[in-house]
Design goal:
The complex is a heterodimer.
Chain A: H1 2-8, H2 36-49, E1 53-58, H3 67-73, H4 93-101, E2 105-110, H5 120-144, E3 150-151, H6 165-172, H7 181-184, H8 207-213, E4 239-243
Antiparallel strand pairs in A: 1-2, 2-4, 3-4
Helix pairs in contact in A: 2-5
Chain B: H1 16-28, E1 33-38, H2 47-53, H3 73-80, E2 86-94, H4 107-135, E3 141-143, H5 156-168, H6 203-210, E4 230-237
Antiparallel strand pairs in B: 1-2, 2-4, 3-4
Classes of the chains: A alpha+beta, B alpha+beta.
Chain lengths: ~240, ~240
C-alpha cells in the first residue's frame, strides 16, 4: 500500500486547464426564437467531443425533486461541502425549478460512465472529461446564439485536482492536499471556471425521472456500491442536461 | 445474497419481490425483526428533533449525523412524502447487559457499549440501502438511531481521552473529531447515516401503532434487570 502511495506522488493543484483551440468565426446574432437545426448542430459538436447521443426535450419535462440534494447528504457523499458545485453551497431546488421555468428547450446528453468494476482513476478521469464536454457544449450553444445556455454535470467538482487518486492518497495519509480555492479563499476566483458546472443532483434535478420521461431509461447508470454493502458513488446518472433557450 | 449488477435497470415502482428480498436480507444481516413500512404509516413530529437538544445529547452539534446538521422535519417531510412508497424497518436488540448507562454506572464502559451498538445499526442500514440500490432503487435512503460512532467517537477510549483533554489537560495527541463538522470529509461516509429522530421521523409512534413493542423508558434510576432489552431501529426508504 505504501508503495502504491509513493507511485502516486504528491497531489497537485491544476492551476488552469488548457484553453480550447481558438476558432475564428463570424459574430452570431443573439437568437430570440428556436431553430431546431441548431440543436442538431450543437449535438453533433457534442458528439465530436465524446458524447454518445443527444436529444432535445422541452425544459418543462425536466423533473425536480427536493429529495435529490438530500441524497447528497444521506449518505454524506465525499463531495459534500467540497466546492461551490455541491451542497450546501448550490442553489435550492425551488430556485432551480424557477430557472427551468424560464427556459423552453433543453438538450439531454448521454455520457456513459465507466463500468462499475473500473478502477477509481477511470471514474476520476470520466468526471473531468464529462465536465469539459458539458462546459464546451454549453459554450458552443452560446456561440450559436443561445446566450443563456446553462449546463449541468454529475459528481463533485474535480477539475482542479481535488479527488484525484493522488489527492485521496494524501488525504488518507493525513497530508496536506489542495482544496477548492473559492472555499479556502486562497484565490478570489475559481481556477477552472471554464469547466465547472453544478452537479444535477445538487440542484435538485432528478435525472432518472427526466430520462425516463424522455424514453432514455435504458441509458441510465445506477449509483452502484463499489464494495458490497458500501454505497460510495457520486451522482453519475450518465445523462446530463443543458438548458438552451 | 448476490444480485446481478446491471449498468441500467433503474426501477421507479417498488416490486413486491424486491421488498421481500430486502426483508430477507435484513434478517440475514442479523435484524431480529424486519417489517415493510408504508409511507402513510411514517409519522413526522417536530418534538422528536428537540429531544436531541433538551436535554442535549452528548452528540448534539458534535456529530454531522445529529442535529443541528441533519435535515429538519419539514425538509424530510417535503422530500420524502412525495418520493417514497415503501420502506424497510429493521430492528436489532442489545442484550440486557449492554443497555448502556444503566448497566453498572461506569460511564466510560457504558459509552463504549453504546457506541458499538450504534455502529452496528449504521452498518446494517448502509448494507440494506446498498442492496436496494443494487436492485435498482436509486432513491434508497437509510436512517438510523443515535449518533454515528463509526469514526471512533464515543468509544471508551475516545471518552477517556476527551475527559483527559477537557478536565485534566493531560491528553496529548490528536483527538478524533467528526470531519464534516470541521468542513472536511467524513472518513466513514460509506456507512454513516443520520439518525431518524432529528429528521423528524417518529419511529416510536409507528412501533406503538403496529403493536410491535411495549413502551419503555430507560432512565438512570431504573434497575438494569427491569430492562429486558434495548431495540435499535433502522429505516431504509425504498422508492
Amino acid at each position: 500500500m505504501s508503495e502504491e502511495k509513493k507511485e502516486l506522488g504528491e497531489p497537485q493543484r491544476i492551476m488552469r486547464s488548457p484553453a480550447p483551440e481558438r476558432v475564428d468565426r463570424p459574430a452570431v446574432r443573439i437568437k430570440d426564437s428556436v431553430d431546431e437545426a441548431d440543436f442538431k448542430a450543437i449535438i453533433d459538436f457534442a458528439k465530436e467531443k465524446g458524447v454518445a447521443e443527444g436529444i432535445a426535450i422541452k425544459a418543462r419535462d425536466i423533473v425536480t425533486n427536493s429529495l435529490m440534494p438530500m441524497k447528497c447528504r444521506i449518505p454524506t457523499c465525499w463531495g459534500y461541502n467540497s466546492s461551490y458545485f455541491c451542497p450546501p453551497r448550490t442553489i435550492s431546488t425551488s430556485d432551480m425549478q424557477a430557472i427551468i421555468d424560464d427556459f423552453e428547450w433543453a438538450l439531454l446528453l448521454h455520457i456513459p460512465p465507466p463500468e462499475p468494476s473500473a478502477p477509481y482513476s477511470d471514474f476520476y478521469g470520466h468526471m473531468n472529461t464529462m465536465k469539459e464536454i458539458i462546459g464546451r457544449t454549453e459554450v458552443e450553444a452560446q456561440y450559436t446564439g443561445y446566450v443563456n445556455s446553462m449546463g449541468f454535470t454529475g459528481g463533485p467538482c474535480t477539475i482542479c485536482g481535488m479527488f484525484s487518486p493522488e489527492w485521496v492518497a494524501a488525504k488518507k495519509a493525513k497530508k496536506d492536499a489542495p482544496l477548492c480555492t473559492l472555499i479556502t479563499g486562497e484565490f478570489s476566483t475559481c481556477l477552472q471556471y471554464y469547466h465547472c458546472r453544478p452537479s444535477v443532483q445538487a440542484v435538485g434535478i432528478d435525472m432518472y425521472a427526466t430520462a425516463k420521461g424522455a424514453g432514455w431509461e435504458d441509458r441510465l447508470a445506477l449509483p452502484l456500491p463499489v464494495k458490497k454493502g458500501r454505497t460510495d458513488w457520486p451522482c453519475l446518472p450518465g445523462v446530463y442536461p443543458i438548458l438552451v433557450m | 445474497m448476490d444480485v446481478e449488477r446491471k449498468g441500467a435497470g433503474v426501477k421507479f415502482e417498488v416490486l413486491q419481490e424486491d421488498l421481500d428480498a430486502l426483508l430477507d436480507y435484513s434478517k440475514e444481516l442479523g435484524a431480529r425483526e424486519a417489517i415493510p413500512i408504508n409511507k402513510k404509516d411514517i409519522f413526522y413530529r417536530e418534538w422528536v428533533r428537540h429531544k436531541c437538544g433538551f436535554p442535549n445529547c452528548g452528540a448534539y452539534a458534535v456529530c454531522f449525523q445529529c442535529p443541528p446538521s441533519t435535515p429538519r422535519k419539514e425538509e424530510t417531510e417535503a422530500a420524502v412524502v412525495p418520493s417514497y412508497e415503501w420502506g424497510v424497518l429493521a430492528v436489532i436488540y442489545s442484550s440486557p447487559e449492554e443497555v448502556g448507562m444503566q448497566s453498572d454506572g461506569d460511564m466510560v464502559r457504558a459509552y463504549d457499549r453504546e457506541s458499538r451498538w450504534s455502529a452496528r445499526i449504521n452498518n446494517l442500514v448502509s448494507k440494506i440501502e446498498s442492496m436496494a440500490l443494487e436492485l435498482g432503487y436509486y432513491k434508497a435512503m437509510g436512517f438510523t438511531c443515535g449518533p454515528c460512532t463509526l469514526c471512533g467517537m464515543w468509544t471508551g477510549k475516545w471518552i477517556t481521552d476527551e475527559l483527559a483533554r477537557v478536565f485534566s489537560d493531560s491528553f496529548e495527541g490528536e483527538q478524533v473529531t467528526c470531519g464534516p463538522m470541521r468542513g472536511g470529509m467524513c472518513t466513514v461516509h460509506r456507512r454513516a447515516r443520520p439518525s431518524g429522530e432529528p429528521c423528524g421521523i417518529d419511529i416510536i409512534e409507528f412501533i406503538r401503532e403496529a403493536g410491535l413493542a411495549t413502551d419503555m423508558l430507560i432512565m438512570p434510576e431504573i434497575a438494569p434487570d427491569c430492562v429486558p432489552e434495548c431495540p435499535y431501529y433502522g429505516l431504509v426508504l425504498v422508492g
